[in-house]
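One thing: can you check what follows?
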Amino acid sequence: MNNKNQPKRELVVNWHITEACNYKCSYCFAKWNRQKNEVMNDEAATIRLLDEISKL
């Protein structure tokens, strides 16, 4: 099969920058307001990750 005939696939990144929630539902047991739960709380690491993603 010739790869030139196949359509180019686009990379899609769906990145949730924060897990914080501001709804404050009385019944919710989630602890999203805690800083330690944040996936990316290091600016330098975030920039490196974005750089790596841009190379894909």
Remarks:
- The chain has one helix and no strands.
- Residues 30-56 form one domain.
- The CA atoms of residues 11 and 56 lie 8 Å apart.
- The first helix runs from residue 43 to 54.
